[in-house]
Amino acid sequence: MATASKSGEAELAALRQQLLRAQRMAALGELVGTTTHEFNNVLTTILNYAKLGLRNKDEATRDKAFDRILSAALRAEKITNSVLGMARNRSDEFAPTELEPLVEQTLTLLEREMQKYRIAIRKEFQPAPPARAVGNQIQQVLLNLMTNARQAMAGGGELLVRVHHDEAANLIDITVRDPGCGIPREHLPKIFERFFTTKSGPDATGKGGAGVGLAMCRDIVEAHQGRIRVESAVGKGTAFTVRLPVWQTPEPAAGAAAITPLGAPGLPSQSPLY
Ligand SMILES: Nc1ncnc2c1ncn2[C@@H]1O[C@H](COP(=O)(O)OP(=O)(O)O)[C@@H](O)[C@H]1O
Ligand SMILES: [Mg+2]
Asked: Per-domain residue ranges for the chain?
């Protein structure tokens, strides 16, 4: 009996892993869509200003053309770095992760999309220690939450992204708050369920409508021993908060304690967070 349920558990765990991987591929697909689109915009700018500079020999026009080409190329560089940031951290290992640059990189990827839908970004970043996180996965959570927020703000507006260190709890909070349509009370218990969606299908950017975004967010955050919370009011807006544990320097092994120099400051005790 015990063996049967053990193998059942193992099977379930393997299926969960597979699902996470499939969701990651889907998120990567969406990301490729966004990035390719962004790159195309940048390329168009570069092509047009290169032609302008070639056609016009006067110095002022050429300077302007070079200026525009340079800023477009810098933007391309930023986009590449944001995607490479994901690739670099692909190990699926928990590591000390600075959340502020992660949020910035995610915003870079969505910059043009947000502009297109007339959404301004307000950032409130407070100094915070690194979190214990898989950067890649947290970026997926952020992409999901920000895309949902954007889709809820049909008329545009201001999207708030906040990073806050809760020192008392030793957790880092990331909040994504939109002044969008809000979530009806009767939907709130269902939004984290897999395949729950109120959208008729993917929007013009190919995102949403499958009802897997928040389920994936919940799975990822739980694997981080974190929490995800929602507050919402219809017609007023929605705030999602992800709480992640602060990275703790591993305690030295028992044998290693003997070589700690005398007089070294004691490490704070490391009680489990949950
Ligand atoms: N910021 C938000 N504002 C309003 N509703 C939201 C927001 N985020 C999520 N929802 C609701 O939760 C549902 C599930 O979200 P999600 O799992 O991302 O799936 P999908 O975006 O594919 O519908 C959405 O269809 C929507 O009804
Ligand atoms: Mg979604």
From this structure: 97-245
